[in-house]
Amino acid sequence: MRKKNTTAFQFPGGKPDPDETPLQAAVREVGEEIGVTLDGALLSPRGTFRAAAANEENHEVIADVFSYPSPVIPNIAAEIAEYAWVDLAEPHVELAPLLKTPALREKHC
């Protein structure tokens, strides 16, 4: 997804609430940002990754990334300008630094 007033596409996400696990935060953030209710039991952890923040100069993001076994149909919220399905190995849009992480570009079943 790409947020309004930005150029790079990124994963939906945000900071966890107090006492919220990374998995719970992922389910909540996906619901808030792209209007999709994920089944947390179907999320598979890909790992924790660090990268430069796409939209905040001199900041870093630390992301717990999960895979979901089936496609979802986003219903983008107010802060989201657009979404796209992107093959990270051959992107057709500008990617946030996190999405350029080599381990995320590997195909994952």
TrEMBL record:
Keyword list, A-Z: Hydrolase
Superkingdom: Bacteria
Keyword Hydrolase recorded: yes
InterPro entries (alphabetical): NUDIX_hydrolase-like_dom_sf, NUDIX_hydrolase_CS, NUDIX_hydrolase_dom
Alphabetized Pfam families for the sequence: NUDIX (PF00293)
Region (Disordered): 1-21
Nudix hydrolase domain boundaries: 1-108
Protein name (database record): NUDIX domain protein
